[in-house]
Amino acid sequence: MFRRRIKILFLVLALLLIPMHQAKAIDPVTIAIMAPVVLQLANAARPYVIRGLVNLGKGVIRVGKDVVELVFLPYGILKMTFGAPFGGFRSGLVYTIRGGIAIGKMVFHILILPLTVFGINFNVGS
Q1: How many CB atoms lie within 10 A of CB 113?
Q2: DSSP code string of 58-126
Q3: Least C-beta-crowded within 10 Å: which of 7, 17, 35, 90?
Q4: pTM for the whole thing?
Q5: Is 16 in a helix, a strand, or coil?
């Protein structure tokens, strides 16, 4: 009984503390007045936005190359196990190591992806 009252109390407190959202409208006159100013700001920001998107594209391509290199990991493991009798252990080990390194490179490049938008480049593993 006591636990049920505590649950009801927490429910009521949660409902009282959640802010209620209200619709706020902007009148059409304000939009008409602000439109030329916003267009000027958008034209001024266009080169920076384009440069950021180009840098982001380069970063995504770098991550894509790392994803492709991930194929080396299972290929190396298969080559070490099934290709070992035929002399494929050493090359399989090399492919396995390359695939393991690709995981670290991919994680690193994904983590720095937001920084590449601003043109920051670490040149690690590229």
Answers
A1: 15
A2: HHHHHHHHHHHHTTHHHHHHHHHHHSGGGT-HHHHHHHHHHHHHHHHHHHHHHHTHHHHTTT-------
A3: 17
A4: 0.64
A5: helix
